[in-house]
Amino acid sequence: xxxxxxxxxxxxxxxxxxxxxxxxxxxxxxxxxxxxxxxxxxxxxxxxxxxxxxxxxxxxxxxxxxxxxxxxxxxxxxxxxxxxxxxxxxxxxxxxxxxxxxxxxxxxxxxxxxxxxxxxxxxxxxxxxxxxxxxxxxxxxxxxxxxxxxxxxxxxxxxxxxxxxxxxxxxxxxxxxxxxxxxxxxxxxxxxxxxxxxxxxxxxxxxxxxxxxxxxxxxxxxxxxxxxxxxxxxxxxxxxxxxxxxxxxxxxxxxxxxxxxxxxxxxxxxxxxxxxxxxxxxxxxxxxxxxxxxxxxxxxxxxxxxxxxxxxxxxxxxxxxxxxxxxxxxxxxxxxxxxxxxxxxxxxxxxxxxxxxxxxxxxxxxxxxxxxxxxxxxxxxxxxxxxxxxxxxxxxxxxxxxxxxxxxxxxxxxxxxxxxxxxxxxxxxxxxxxxxxxxxxxxxxxxxxxxxxxxxxxxxxxxxxxxxxxxxxxxxxxxxxxxxxxxxxxxxxxxxxxxxxxxxxxxxxxxxxxxxxxxxxxxxxxxxxxxxxxxxxxxxxxxxxxxxxxxxxxxxxxxxxxxxxxxxxxxxxxxxxxxxxxxxxxxxxx
Amino acid sequence: xxxxxxxxxxxxxxxxxxxxxxxxxxxxxxxxxxxxxxxxxxxxxxxxxxxxxxxxxxxxxxxxxxxxxxxxxxxxxxxxxxxxxxxxxxxxxxxxxxxxxxxxxxxxxxxxxxxxxxxxxxxxxxxxxxxxxxxxxxxxxxxxxxxxxxxxxxxxxxxxxxxxxxxxxxxxxxxxxxxxxxxxxxxxxxxxxxxxxxxxxxxxxxxxxxxxxxxxxxxxxxxxxxxxxxxxxxxxxxxxxxxxxxxxxxxxxxxxxxxxxxxxxxxxxxxxxxxxxxxxxxxxxxxxxxxxxxxxxxxxxxxxxxxxxxxxxxxxxxxxxxxxxxxxxxxxxxxxxxxxxxxxxxxxxxxxxxxxxxxxxxxxxxxxxxxxxxxxxxxxxxxxxxxxxxxxxxxxxxxxxxxxxxxxxxxxxxxxxxxxxxxxxxxxxxxxxxxxxxxxxxxxxxxxxxxxxxxxxxxxxxxxxxxxxxxxxxxxxxxxxxxxxxxxxxxxxxxxxxxxxxxxxxxxxxxxxxxxxxxxxxxxxxxxxxxxxxxxxxxxxxxxxxxxxxxxxxxxxxxxxxxxxxxxxxxxxxxxxxxxxxxxxxxxxxxxxxxxxxxxxxxxxxxxxxxxxxxxxxxx
Lengths: 590, 620
What we know:
The complex is a heterodimer. By secondary structure, chain A is α+β, with helices and mostly antiparallel strands.
């Protein structure tokens, strides 16, 4: 990822303003530690902090068209850039950067080219010929983006809130899948897939089509000129990502430069479920596996930093971001700049446990739509910002545009959990990769239910957070919470504690409005709480104690013993190579 | 390099204090991006930000002795750690970190072990058994360290000023070669080499001994578990470092992991003298050479950050730090974590052009002593902080303890510049590496005079800085400079401009102000960090950490006396002032242009020397 900051139509083009814009841009430097760039044109400033993944040698930004009349600052990856370059045969390219196509596409097609881009991106494009500009954000909001307005009429665009919150009168999250055009003074949605209307699809489940779509999504994300790896918690999603990556790595350009052995990374408290599950999958796939151990105190010491970086006070997001944030630092210190991760699958396939209680396929489907649309505020935000804090880029193949189209056009009847037919959550995805001849994963892993949310890093993590918060937040504070924080009032001491930290970093009213709220059970939307009358009585955001739908809650074991004992491909001439990187972490003596 | 911060004897031991110290420690995170550590023991905090060079897997800090009663947080490299470990047979080591020996040496020898360390280091060691502590800094001050005192009686140590300037009532630059002991409550010098007294040595010049000492100094600095390279400007010093490093790379452990091809790095404005000179050397040595070009605008845009990071307002230091700062970012982005660099040679051998005018060998020698003693305020500070800003470590073989001993033990008669004998500046080191059979460098490079100071990155760099500064500083401002800045009053607009930036980051008076205060927001912005609260106090310590006084072309104030004309032109760069560059000795036709030079009209007979030098690069 990179960091972009643009100020457009500023009344001030002085040296002092330039210095100020440079200064603000530096707040995004963690996103792009490799180089900075600033293009100033009158009262328009386009800045960039670069993380060099493609063409490290020449791709410094901002980027230009041939005659430099069009300037663009981009955070993102355009996976189909080579194909697009071919369609622009009469254009002369200045760099090898995948993002340069944006300037040329605009020149060729005007404002209507955004849907041609396959990838994740946030960009600001300035057309110096008529002093107009456009801004766009990718379909789902995998990259982060904020928009703000200054008192002088200037429009501000920033990858993170911290780049503009002190200088804008009002600001908000830039809606994903949208385009802002200065000519039209407003937003329009460029992303208009069939599923967006939330109508119920009827395409029958085709396992091979789904598999193929996912494989394609992973393969295109192997485009890199620098070392990379996969985040492997050992759950279904990250295991599939790792398995497919390991399978296709050998043929790629990245493998020629950096070797064909896949690096995988897992974080957890000592002895946690994720570490065990991650190791098992890594052994099976034969990856170079790196384990990072952290202590509850390490995590607590990092909380302020985490909230500053991810810019939210949402409780589950902060719980899950912290281990990811710590792991990202270690990953980066190994020289790895990019990781592939499994976010998005739970939303597309209704993988959260509360989906067990969906009353019918229509409700099920609409809830998945709502979840996908809200991803940019939750898991996308977490994955992007927790890694970007250390100059690490995360790629999420489940949120590939094509893959989403395929997955969201499946008749939701197939996604429904049906205990009687042996279908647990995300069964369609499991089934799609259930290949007897050439197994992607052993059956017991493919069909296993794993800890959700942050439980996997170790049960004492959340307990530790709650205990720490209780030291800082008194009962009296909780009594007055609604008066102090009338918007999205925290309902737990933990939530109150995070909120206090958030408000210190981002005191503006606009800031608190960028964070979602409302009732939720185990990550559900507010709407889905209606599915079970009991849920509204227990709004713990984690699912551990609340739902009673985990496999162990059913009388019979989900996975037949015959499946669990399925043949492991490790027996078939794949040798496991594990490098354990023990981290003594922050040592605390009390 | 790493970043260390220690607070000892705090009145406040609350959770909030812990959070504050973690926050302050984050201001040093650029020095150690790889991991953080904090150790709390009662009212003592030792924090660490780690750049993992040795033993990346297990060497996270703070480090301990066997029973964890001795805790140490270290920024540095101990080159003789294996040898020291061998001496500590009875001790059990926990990590592969080179710095762990410090805890064990203390256990074995008490406070008297510092001189046993061969390397560069700053550390704070806490003995929990009697709650005493010591802090020490390496001989020359290659690693930075500051010492401060809080109103509550706490003692603070920090790798950079920025982590303690807001919380200490008073602070100073920790003197190099010293140790602070809580038991005696004071500083004492542990570094006592013969040259320190500044008496005149008489050992005759032995070229091979000098060569061998330097080779050893380079070889021990090849100790690393991560990719590294050499900063190569193409001048004598960096070329020697590169030549020796590439010659010995193949034998090292690091070559097995990262390949035996040496990476070299050079920065300059497009077409600058350094780029050309370095390329020539890189081609000769067959290194994997990386050239970085920057524009004057890019340099200017980086100035605020450079001053924030280097923590100085010294004009030559800032001019030279900026390209180094930009280059370090690019080097780091290539995955390189450590570089060897040529700092120190000019001080040890009297390589600055003004040494041409040294009246006698005694003066010459004493000036070199003074220069070395001041290195921690100038080139060491620059080399360390400009690279550490991006998590790159700089190692400086010329400042090896044994090499300094040998070089400073030489009868200074040999170092004197003698045109009649064909001895230009730094002749002793040039001659030491003049090997006809197996040349380290081609003769014309070995004996070439190169641009000094920041001229090498491109002449328009300094001109650009001056132009930019004059847009910000009016004549009226400069006229009142002595009232605004009575201490180290800036004498040029450029100096004034840097000073205003410095004072913004490290203000002479910080009252208690809310966190929205602009200056502090700026600090946060620069650091890429954030602060929850600012508890500033009245202080005026920051500007006193920066040296001042008259200087011509990097001389000490004392050496300004060597030439009566110098005191009239105190331009800190040597370009126009000295008239001692090689080309100035030659009667070249261009001399007519010299008379047209406005500076020449001011009474400086042989100016414009550098212009000649570029027209005809001198080769002896």
